[in-house]
Design goal:
This is Replication restart protein PriA. By secondary structure, this protein is an alpha/beta fold. The protein folds into 6 domains: 6-113, PriA, 3(prime) DNA-binding domain (GIY-YIG endonuclease); 123-187; 204-379, 3-Layer(aba) Sandwich (Rossmann fold), CATH 3.40.50.300; 390-432 and 491-626, 3-Layer(aba) Sandwich (Rossmann fold), CATH 3.40.50; 435-484, no CATH class; 636-724, Ribosomal protein S10 (Alpha-Beta Plaits, 2-Layer Sandwich), CATH 3.30.70.600. It has 21 helices and 31 strands. A 7-stranded parallel β-sheet has the order 11-12-10-13-14-9-15, with helices on both faces. The protein has a 6-stranded parallel β-sheet with strand order 16-26-25-17-24-23, with helices on both faces. Helix 1 (83-95) packs across helix 12, helix 5 packs across helix 7 (170-178) and helix 8 (204-214) runs parallel beside helix 9 (232-245). The chain binds adenosine-5'-triphosphate and zinc ion.
């Protein structure tokens, strides 16, 4: 049956269905283009279910009007998502093959996603009217109203300021308002401390980079490759200052654990404009206000982690992605976007520069820079007279290790403390020991629900699975052979802390890992507690990121052997990045730095290359290997992951998916495989890797394939997801 078309709103909802939903406008309202980008509350699903969605279009529907429901409420008078941002979000949905509604929900801060009103970040205040100014100039009766009026003639005042300046001011304000001499108003938020700290004189390399940035216009991707401590942040600050001077805003992305109050403080102190922060340590309300401040142009700069890439800018001028190689830019669930890649997409649509900065750029970015697609700026030397740290490899084969530490490493720490300086002892493993083994029969404690060993914690009194969180008490005797010779094998940060405390009883000792930094700003407090005197920091990769501790002169790396033999094709790149970053914490100021690297594999080619040629040599070699093997950045990957209660269900789905994959020239669907961790939290896991020499045919195949997957019966028995450009093949 045909129906007369009726005007409808196309609404994107945060549900896992790749389509919009049509709704009638509320009674009496006409759907027009001004609806696009506004949030609406709509009935959805059974009963009185409701959802908050975003209007993504207006049109007509020829469906039975009786089947169409009206929108319950329009939540925004002005579009929340529009222009370039909405376009970039549509691009995101297309590229990652994710439903637009889910992408839009991912892009909105939690409060707005939940349908809350856009917070008003201005403050309620009072101002004098022109009549009030005349009255204040004329002689008149003394009293509180006059006192208040005189204050307001000097400047508009916020209500909270009036509370302190003129307690009990409200009756006086009412009296002025009745006579038309003053009235309520809204004020811009209190300006941040606008005193600016001095910029250091730029090094020639920094000055050259800044000049190159000034010389560019429009969309310009820039890779700023600068060794650790070379002053990349200083270059960002100059570029941001230029951008602000031109009346524009800058959006700065930093890695998840890089956004310390110290880092923010550096931006705030130098730029002299309100700098908004956006990260997971803030409340929903704080995040929403930061978003609004940037969207409405009140903040000049926003510094934020991954999801800040979706913040709207009123006057876009510059995007910066600091530590662009960092793994935290990739979202690992839901919409699996890469914030660095989206920053490039946004900059291109906005026609503005985007700076990617790193001492250890990702091979993807490096490849783009080397092939001329990005402007490649280099800072080869440390700033401020610091020299690069000396690196020593300690061969610990056949040497006795006490709690994982060699005598030479301990000597180096002792010498550092004796000089009154600070040492960082690095081990990328938290807990007491990575595994509990039976010295007699070789049994080891495994998680019952995962294919993984349980980590020993609390000095040996507890076992915790780092993959599913399961906890257990260690057995008294070996469950297999009843031997009492159960021993924690290897060392994590907890064990190192204990051993170092015993060896250096007087020294300040601070452990920094996920356990000790759960609280907000715990990291900053830990680093501060180290003070200026001699001391030891023990910790995981949390310490590898952008910290600047002038007294830190020794970095002791306790074994990286786990990383040398991983099957993941990115393992070498990641290990080299981690080593360079952590080594880069040593000797950043005037004191010379030293790095000691304890290993059982001193002859491993990766270490040799790294020592002699640094990161550029490792990267060049890795790029050549990737080209030969057909891996990114010379190929494009997508990974279909599935998990279910049984392995059979996973297999059935992946086999059917494999058979259904549309043939395309240059695109290959590899045979389904168990995931590297085939069982996790009691669920079987498998995956199917797609690779292609070109992007377009891969995406064309995916577009054809996904509807087939959704229709498969076997898909109902599994949880599956597609990851475009996966960074981890697990
Ligand atoms: N031109 C300069 N003159 C003097 N000191 C400088 C200069 N530029 C930067 N510095 C100082 O050098 C140190 C390192 O700078 P910055 O933190 O910007 O380096 P970075 O390249 O971002 O480091 P990393 O990548 O290792 O985190 C800081 O203490 C900074 O204040
Ligand atoms: Zn587990």
């Amino acid at each position: 049956m045909d129906f007369r078309p009726v005007p409808v709103l196309h609404v994107a909802l945060p549900v896992p269905l790749p389509r919009d939903f049509d709704y009638l406008p509320p009674a009496g309202a006409l759907p027009g283009p001004d609806w696009v980008g506004c949030r609406v509350r709509v009935p959805f699903g059974r009963g009185d279910g409701e959802q908050v969605g975003v209007v993504v279009g207006v049109g007509e529907s020829g469906a039975d009007p009786a089947s169409l429901k009206p929108v319950l409420a329009r939540l925004d008078a002005q579009p929340l998502l529009q222009g370039e941002l909405l376009e970039s979000l549509r691009w995101t949905a297309g590229y990652y093959h994710a439903p637009l509604g889910e992408v839009l929900a991912t892009a909105l801060p939690g409060l707005l996603r939940a349908g809350q009103p856009v917070p008003d970040t201005r403050r309620a205040g009072w101002r004098a009217t022109p009549a009030g100014r005349d009255a204040a100039a004329a002689p008149g009766r003394k009293g509180r109203p006059r006192e208040l009026l005189q204050l307001l003639c000097e400047q508009d005042l916020a209500e909270d300021e009036l509370d302190t300046r003129l307690p009990g001011w409200r009756p006086a304000a009412r009296s002025l308002a009745e006579r038309g001499l003053a009235g309520p108003t809204t004020l811009e938020p209190a300006a941040a401390p606008l005193a600016r700290s001095e910029a250091p004189t730029l090094t020639p390399a920094q000055a050259e980079a800044v000049a190159a940035l000034r010389g560019s216009s429009g969309f310009q991707p820039v890779l700023l490759e600068g060794v650790t401590g070379s002053g990349k942040t200083e270059v960002y600050l100059q570029a941001i200052a230029d951008c602000l001077a031109a009346g524009r805003q800058a959006l700065v992305l930093v890695p998840e654990i890089g956004l310390t109050p110290q880092a923010l403080g550096r931006f705030r102190a130098r730029l002299g404009v309100p700098v908004a922060a956006f990260h997971s340590g803030l409340s929903d309300g704080e995040r929403a206000r930061a978003w609004v401040d940037l969207a409405e142009g009140r903040a000049g700069v926003l510094v934020g982690t991954r999801s800040a890439v979706f913040c709207p800018m009123a006057r876009p001028g510059l995007l910066v992605v600091d530590e662009e190689h960092d793994g935290s830019y990739k979202q690992q669930d839901g919409v699996r976007y890469h914030a660095r890649d989206l920053a490039l997409v946004r900059a291109s649509k906005l026609g503005i520069p985007v700076i990617l900065g790193s001492a250890t750029p990702s091979l993807e970015s490096l490849h783009n820079a080397l092939s001329g697609r990005y402007l490649h700026l280099r800072l080869g030397q440390r700033a401020g007279g610091a020299s690069p740290p000396r690196v020593r490899v300690l061969d610990v084969r056949k040497r006795p290790l006490a709690d994982g530490l060699s005598g030479e490493l301990l000597d180096a720490v002792a010498a550092c403390l004796a000089r009154g300086e600070q040492a960082l002892v690095f081990k990328n493993r938290r807990g007491y020991a990575p595994v509990l083994i039976c010295h007699d029969c070789g049994w080891s404690a495994h998680c019952r629900r995962c294919d993984a060993a349980m980590t020993v914690h609390a000095g040996g009194r507890r076992l915790i699975c780092h993959h599913c969180g399961a906890r257990a008490t260690p057995p008294d005797a070996c469950p297999d052979c009843a031997s009492l010779a159960l021993q924690p094998q290897g060392a994590g940060t907890e064990r190192l802390e204990k051993a170092l405390a015993a060896r250096f009883p007087g020294a300040t000792l601070v452990r920094v890992d996920r356990e000790t930094t759960r609280r907000r700003d715990a990291l900053g407090q830990h680093l501060a507690s180290l003070g200026d005197g001699p001391g030891i920091l023990v910790g995981t990769q949390i310490l590898a990121k952008g910290h600047d501790l002038p007294r830190l002169t020794l970095v002791a790396v306790v074994g990286v052997d786990e990383g040398l033999f991983s099957a993941d094709f990115r393992a070498g790149e990641k290990l080299a990045q981690l080593l360079i970053q952590v080594a880069g914490r040593a000797g950043r100021s005037t004191l010379p730095g030293e790095v000691v690297l304890q290993t059982h594999h001193p002859d491993h080619p990766l270490l040799g290359t790294l020592l002699h040629g640094g990161y550029p040599a490792v990267a060049a070699l890795a790029l050549a290997e990737r080209e030969a093997a057909g891996f990114p950045p010379y190929a494009y990957l997508a990974l279909l992951r599935a998990e279910a209660g049984t392995e059979a269900a996973v297999q059935a789905f992946l086999q059917e998916a494999h058979a259904a994959f549309p043939a395309r020239e240059g695109v290959r669907a590899n045979a389904p495989m168990p995931a590297p961790m085939a069982r996790r939290a009691g669920r079987a896991r498998g995956q199917l890797l797609l690779d292609a020499s070109q992007r377009p045919p891969l995406h064309a195949a995916l577009r054809e394939w996904l509807p087939l997957l959704r229709a498969m019966r076997s898909a109902r028995k599994v949880r599956w997801s597609l990851d475009v450009d996966p960074t981890d093949l697990y």
